[in-house]
Amino acid sequence: MIRVVLPPHLRIMARVDGEVALEVEGAATLRSVLDALEAAYPVLRGTIRDQATQRRRPFLRFFACQQDLSHQPPDDRQPEAVAEGVEPLVIVAAIAGG
Amino acid sequence: MAPLFAGWQIYHIKGSPADPNRIYASQTSGWFGQVIQRSDDGGQTWEPVGNRFEYDGVPGTHQWYNGTQHPWEFARVWHLEPSLADPDTIYAGVEDAALFRSTDGGQTWHELSGLRRDSSGHLWQPGAGGLCLHTILLEPQRPGRIFVAISAAGAFRSDDGGETWRPINRGLHSEYIPDPEAEVGHCVHRIALHPSRPQVLFMQKHWDVMRSDDAGESWYEVSGNLPSDFGFPIAVHAHEPETVYVVPIKSDQEHFPPEGKLRVYRSRTGGHEWEPLTKGLPQRDCYVNVLREAMAVDALDPCGIYSGTTGGQVYVSADSGETWQPIVRDLPAVLSVEVQTLP
Question: With a cut of 0.90, is the ipTM above it?
Fold first, then answer.
């Protein structure tokens, strides 16, 4: 299982507490994890990446294992610890607007 | 009562005239994009519906602030207008300016792209708040006639349900654009009509309060004795088609009421002659704005008027504007005010 931590607003939208656990088909990449997340929680479509271009929303970033994965190509494999469920993929909303 | 959708901006919320339990809301965020919420029980519970707004075909470009062409990009939904007859049909006015329609209760959206195609979309340019389609009026006596207004492009009309469009800006005069009487490019802030007489339109433009007696074919100025003819909202009394309300704002550079006095102005003559309505409204040191979507009327008798400010107050007059009182004071900036008059 892949673990994903959503920002608070999206946890409310998806009606989940804490982490989300996802079954991902094939290799764990940003694309496959987000595909699985949106399949499990259709309400999140369009809130993390644009539905047409699939581009990450500018004020969201992806972190795992102390690394910023935001600019990683979407089909690159996630770190082993994420793929094995040891570490979560963390989706962070930028602290912006102040 | 705790807020719904806390932490998000609600650009607009509106109930279906055909089924008052059906309400739609535009929920938006700089972080998470656009969500459309729908309630089928009068606002008790809400469910997100479709939020995929894709322009029809190749989106093309519009004018940018510096005069260059800029690709059309969806940002948010400014206005939701449910059909007068069918609760599942709803129109959405979006930024960058375009009109979308859903016929399945908001699950899927399709652009009525004739508006951009037929109306010189490449000449439109954003106002200070973006290139937004913020007003949608459905003509009650003539199904298929739709009016929309866009900042900063102008007003447009369709007579065939939104398939084809043309600009309706003759008579508008805007000194601040290269051709003050151009066919498009005017910063229209709001238009309003009375359902019993829908060929008469009232407009609050960036500057100037305007009127048309022929469904937008031509416009003339009715600013009259207003202390400033700059402002955002304009509304028509529920039972008196010649009674109109505006909220004058000092200028396009200073978005607060002249002299720091919040005054709603009422004309009972369809324009030209205006009277200040002040009882219960702050008459000193008031530096709020009233945004274009933040004034509404109910259908009670006497007619109620509702006005929300960027200072987080909502003022209500239960007597057509004679006296006002705040029903809430400490909200964030009020983006929109809507009223449902239930049977």
Answer: yes
